[in-house]
């Protein structure tokens, strides 16, 4: 069946009509994963991308994969609810650290325990709209590296910085145990498409 709404843009119509629309591989169709991987540096290829029905599902899945009742996670508050609650739903021990307006909502990672395995950040931050500095991002990476902690970085507002020069590197590019969570919903304005993904280097996850 031809999809007539795409008439007028032959290239797009051909791409749609020739695209396999049966069940896709687990992890998303290879052409989409290849396209997404182009947003990242040389360490991220199609195999390092997993596609989900939106970032919210990606956040839940990452927490279930990386945490359990024996491990400890650190999250920040206020935050988009799923970033805080996904490790709770996964059964992890969770420390919620309060972000404060007097500190311009900047994170101050503390409370690391021997069994801390997971730390969740969201930059640019929902709801504050703030962004951490590259220096703080590097400090966080160094700290996480020292303690063997995975950093889940919710980057759904990345590419929407007021000033492009403030854009932080994707955590998946920066850190071996970094995971970037992204969605078509925000910079591409495609919430109805319900496509999100995780980008990560550590394929042992
Ligand atoms: C910070 C943050 N993460 C994740 C999501 C969820 O994205 P999606 O619409 O792809 O499930 C949102 C949606 O508002 C969000 O604000």
Write structural notes for this entry.
By secondary structure, this protein is of the alpha/beta class. The chain has a single domain (4-200), classed as Type I PLP-dependent aspartate aminotransferase-like (Major domain) (Aspartate Aminotransferase, domain 2). Helix content is 27%, strand content 19%. A seven-stranded mixed β-sheet has the order 1-7-6-5-4-2-3, with helices on both faces. The longest helix has 14 residues, at 134-147. The chain is globular. The mean pLDDT is 94. The structure holds pyridoxal-5'-phosphate. Pyridoxal-5'-phosphate binds next to helix 3. GO terms for molecular function: pyridoxal phosphate binding. Residues 19-200 form the Aminotransferase class I/classII large domain. This is Aminotransferase class I/classII large domain-containing protein. Pfam families: Aminotran_1_2.
Q: What's the story with the biggest beta sheet?
A: 7 strands, mixed
- What is the class in the CATH system? Alpha Beta
Bound molecules: pyridoxal-5'-phosphate
Number of domains: 1
Question: How far apart are the first and last residues' alpha carbons, in Å?
Answer: 40 Å
* Number of helices in the DSSP assignment: 6
- Proper CATH architecture: 3-Layer(aba) Sandwich
The CATH superfamily is identified as Type I PLP-dependent aspartate aminotransferase-like (Major domain)
Identify the strand order in the major beta sheet. Answer: 1-7-6-5-4-2-3
User: Average pLDDT value?
Assistant: 94
CATH fold description: Aspartate Aminotransferase, domain 2
Alpha carbon gyration radius: 18 Å
């Amino acid at each position: 069946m031809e999809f007539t709404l795409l008439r007028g843009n032959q290239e797009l119509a051909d791409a749609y009509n020739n695209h396999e629309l049966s069940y896709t591989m687990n992890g998303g169709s290879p052409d989409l994963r290849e396209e997404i991987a182009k947003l990242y540096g040389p360490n991220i290829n199609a195999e390092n991308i997993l596609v989900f029905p939106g970032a919210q599902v990606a956040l839940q899945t990452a927490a279930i994969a990386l945490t359990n009742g024996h491990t400890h996670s650190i999250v920040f508050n206020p935050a988009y609810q799923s970033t805080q609650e996904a490790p709770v739903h996964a059964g992890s021990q969770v420390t919620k650290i309060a972000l404060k307006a007097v500190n311009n909502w900047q994170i101050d990672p503390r409370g690391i325990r021997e069994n801390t395995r997971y730390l969740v950040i969201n930059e640019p931050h929902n709801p504050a709209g703030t962004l951490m500095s590259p220096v703080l991002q590097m400090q966080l990476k160094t700290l996480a590296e020292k303690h063997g902690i995975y950093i889940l970085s919710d980057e759904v507002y990345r590419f929407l910085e007021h000033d492009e020069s403030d854009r932080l590197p994707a955590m998946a590019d920066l850190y071996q145990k970094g995971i970037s969570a992204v969605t078509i919903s925000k910079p591409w304005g495609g919430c109805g498409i319900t496509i999100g993904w995780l980008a990560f280097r550590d394929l042992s996850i």
